[in-house]
Write a structure and sequence with these properties.
13-stranded mixed beta sheet; 2 domains; disordered N terminus; alpha/beta; 25 strands; 469 residues
Length: 469
Amino acid sequence: MKEKTQVDDIDRSLYDFRYEDKDAYKVEEGLTEDIVRQISDEKNDPDWMREFRLKALKIYNEIPVPDWGPSIDGLDMEHIVTYVRPNTERMHTSWEDVPEDIKTTFDKLGIPEAERKSLAGVGAQYDSELVYHNVRKEVSEQGVVYTDIESALRGEYGDMIREHFMHLVPPTDHKFAALHGAVWSGGSFVYVPKGVHLDIPLKSYFRLNAKGAGQFEHTLIIVEDDAYLHFIEGCSAPKYNVANLHAGCVELFVGKNSTLRYSTIENWSKNMYNLNTKRAIVAEGGKIEWVSGSFGSHVSYLYPMSILDGKGARTEFTGVTFAGNGQNLDTGTKVVHNAPDTSSYVNTRSISKDGGISTFRSSVVINSNAKGSKSAVSCESLMVDDISRSDTIPAMDVRTADADVGHETRIGRISDDTVFYLMSRGLSEEEARALIVRGFADNVSKELPLEYAVEMNNLITLEMKGSIG
């Protein structure tokens, strides 16, 4: 068999296409008080939000850059545009009214088709603005609110948003939470009333088209008692030769005996710094389910956090991370057990190839009042070659003897014998390796709705193209 010595170019045309943004409005590069005020004016913020932004900017300037994870030296905020308005004057509720280039972008990504087939409602963000939002009539008739957060902020839900906005993720949390608080733009607001069970999911999709820009959407979801919601989030961006930044924020409030499933496939381009923050607080008997697929970005810091605040609250985190050439993805999860009989289960897969670096980082805290709680963490890592790297950094802080805690880690490489066997059955080397990786990540894909499981498997196949045997 002829040895494979050349890496083929990966065809990312589905995600890497882009349009000129010459007609878009944007602020100057950098981050100053004048720029923050300019964004606030663009958003027609209420006074309290303007003050909030300015306080967050002050905090941002005082907090140092994290020094414990992957290097973000290539991110220069002096050259990041923090607000870009696409060439549309308002958000649309009819797909036909969306400007043609934006509509074509989301058509190529399959958003309208997904909406027609399987979604209760969908929101589409392009750069810094929601350009499209729609929800099925039968969903809104149940009292479910699904709209862009800015309309909700200025309308009848303003008091509710003020009560919850950056309550779980305060600007003091870390430098990029403060940045988000200063320049946030776009995002979704969801409210599910008590006792309402949505059988079909809601979805938001975020597309960053502009070169050298940042995206800072804010997602706020409130699920009242005895309710159920599945929310899906998708992200992508074309590749540029300059740094882009994503520093969004997700805050989830899960009521008593309610369940919220939050599924994400992040496929940012490999010039992206993904410094996203996601956090949920769960009341008595409630449950938060995280399903996370991280494929893109140059550097990621991503650790969805669950605060189990009521007796019997539960969390499950299922994740897969795929780090290829030029990628350093630092991902994982955090759990805080704040009440008795709470439980957490973490199950992750990380894959690295072509010199990619994948780090799983977890933190489990079981406080002294969380008696009878249980936590199990299982992470497995697969290295496709001998030039990649995979690390596991678990932390467990258990403050009661009445708890059941476990952690399991496995790291390995693809077996040459397995590849040879599959090739003997008619597969190419590339196909064999992709099949092994898809099987390794199967526990995540089976947790996703069918069309998103297919997308994840397609991404794995895409990333496996050009692997050296």
